[in-house]
Design brief:
Layout: H1 3-11, H2 14-27, H3 32-44, H4 48-65
Helix pairs in contact: 1-2, 2-3, 3-4
Length: about 70
């Protein structure tokens, strides 16, 4: 997580944190850690449905990345 996102979270500026993370996801949608971070921010905003959606993406990506059947 970059410093701007971290600072926004620390200050409680969750809308800014969400926006910054979303921009990073748009640039690199294959980084499942970004979805995990946004899921936490969304949960803190009590946006449960979207938090769960992002959390589900993390789990799927994690399974694919660490599945011995899909690893070279």
């Amino acid at each position: 997580m970059n410093t701007m996102i971290s600072n926004a979270c620390i200050k409680g500026d969750l809308s800014t944190a969400e926006e910054l993370i979303s921009q990073e996801i748009d640039a690199n949608g294959e980084n499942y850690r970004l979805y995990a971070n946004r899921s936490v921010v969304l949960a803190r905003r009590l946006d449960w449905d979207h938090a769960l959606d992002d959390a589900s993406k993390v789990r799927c990506a994690d399974l694919i990345d660490h599945n011995p059947l899909t690893m070279g």
